[in-house]
Design goal:
The chain is mainly β. It is built from no helices and eleven strands. The protein starts with a strand and ends with a strand.
Length: 122
């Protein structure tokens, strides 16, 4: 059974940073691309970023490009999202999700976790 457990969210002031983590189990982590997605209150699910199985290729939504960095440690079965220059509009529940294949394609994910809340407010 795929299990994804996110952590690292919290309350941060505009311009601040957070590092989100996702511990994965129940599948061969290094075989699959991974993604971060988010959902703001009252809005639909928004794809944020993805990374190929080996980490060589990363892709980002325009709304976070240049501010967020996705990475992974296959030895630790862990996915990360470094979020910098946070804005109030980044406030959302952030989920990690398992990709459907080794290569990364925007929005091509399944099996997301329970999420970690990020709130950006002064």
């Amino acid at each position: 059974e795929v299990q994804l457990v996110e952590s690292g969210g919290g309350l941060v002031q505009p311009g601040g940073s957070l590092r989100l983590s996702c511990a994965a189990s129940g599948f061969t982590f290094g075989w699959y691309s991974m993604h971060w997605v988010r959902q703001a209150p009252g809005k639909g699910l928004e794809w944020v970023s993805g990374i190929s199985n080996g980490g060589a290729r990363t892709i980002y939504a325009d709304s976070v490009k240049g501010r967020f960095t996705i990475s992974r440690d296959n030895a630790k079965n862990t996915l990360y999202l470094q979020t910098n220059s946070l804005k109030p509009e980044d406030t959302a529940m952030y989920y990690c999700a398992k990709g459907r294949s080794a290569s990364v394609t925007e929005g091509d994910f399944e099996s997301r976790g329970q999420g970690t809340q990020v709130t950006v407010s002064s």
